[in-house]
């Protein structure tokens, strides 16, 4: 299996594991979020696989598509939509805002390294921060964590 197929396989595996965590009884809840899979004596966090998969797959996608990343379509499709949005949605469905932030930083780093215009990155980051603040304020256990911090 070459690198391209391995990156795609890792992305698919991470999405399947995240879906199993969110939509099946294998998902284990702790402290308000479902971010682990319990399968007998085996436990794990699919989001860790997803972070690695996004970094590898995202860099491969951008390396194939980028020559200075001239337009939005060169990085928006397929990196951000649907790749990142699927993983991010599944992580957020599990209620794990912290991991979602890490994923956003990974994607931002990929886009910055690929040469996406700072104006576009700042606009995207502004939207992301607004959504994070909204999610934080609308969920009591998240606000408790922020207050405690």
UniProtKB/TrEMBL annotation:
Membrane topology: Multi-pass membrane protein
Stated role: Peptidoglycan polymerase that is essential for cell division.
TM segment ranges: 75-93, 99-116, 121-139
Gene Ontology terms: cellular component: cell division site; plasma membrane
Entry keyword Transmembrane: yes
Keywords: Cell shape, Glycosyltransferase, Membrane, Peptidoglycan synthesis, Transferase, Transmembrane, Transmembrane helix
GO molecular function: lipid-linked peptidoglycan transporter activity; peptidoglycan glycosyltransferase activity
Entry's Gene Ontology BP terms: cell division; peptidoglycan biosynthetic process; regulation of cell shape
Family: Belongs to the SEDS family. FtsW subfamily.
UniProt EC number: 2.4.99.28
InterPro entries in the record: FtsW/RodA (IPR001182)
Keyword Repressor attached: no
Subcellular location, record wording: Membrane
Catalytic activity: [GlcNAc-(1->4)-Mur2Ac(oyl-L-Ala-gamma-D-Glu-L-Lys-D-Ala-D-Ala)](n)-di-trans,octa-cis-undecaprenyl diphosphate + beta-D-GlcNAc-(1->4)-Mur2Ac(oyl-L-Ala-gamma-D-Glu-L-Lys-D-Ala-D-Ala)-di-trans,octa-cis-undecaprenyl diphosphate = [GlcNAc-(1->4)-Mur2Ac(oyl-L-Ala-gamma-D-Glu-L-Lys-D-Ala-D-Ala)](n+1)-di-trans,octa-cis-undecaprenyl diphosphate + di-trans,octa-cis-undecaprenyl diphosphate + H(+)
Enzyme category, top tier: transferase
Listed Pfam families: FTSW_RODA_SPOVE
Protein name: Probable peptidoglycan glycosyltransferase FtsW
Domain of life per record: Bacteria
């Amino acid at each position: 299996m070459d690198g391209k197929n391995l990156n795609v396989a890792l992305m698919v595996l991470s999405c399947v594991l995240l879906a199993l965590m969110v939509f099946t009884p294998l998902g284990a809840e702790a402290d308000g979020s479902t971010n682990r899979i319990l399968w007998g004596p085996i436990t794990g966090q699919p989001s860790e696989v997803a972070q690695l998969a996004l970094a590898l797959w995202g860099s491969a996608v951008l390396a194939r598509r980028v020559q200075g990343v001239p337009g939005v379509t060169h990085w928006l499709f397929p990196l951000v939509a649907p790749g990142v949005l699927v993983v991010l949605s599944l992580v957020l469905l599990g209620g794990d805002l912290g991991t979602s932030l890490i994923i956003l930083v990974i994607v931002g780093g990929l886009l910055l390294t690929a040469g996406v215009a700072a104006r576009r990155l700042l606009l995207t980051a502004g939207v992301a921060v607004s959504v994070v603040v909204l999610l934080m304020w609308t969920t009591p256990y998240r606000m408790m964590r922020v207050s405690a911090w």
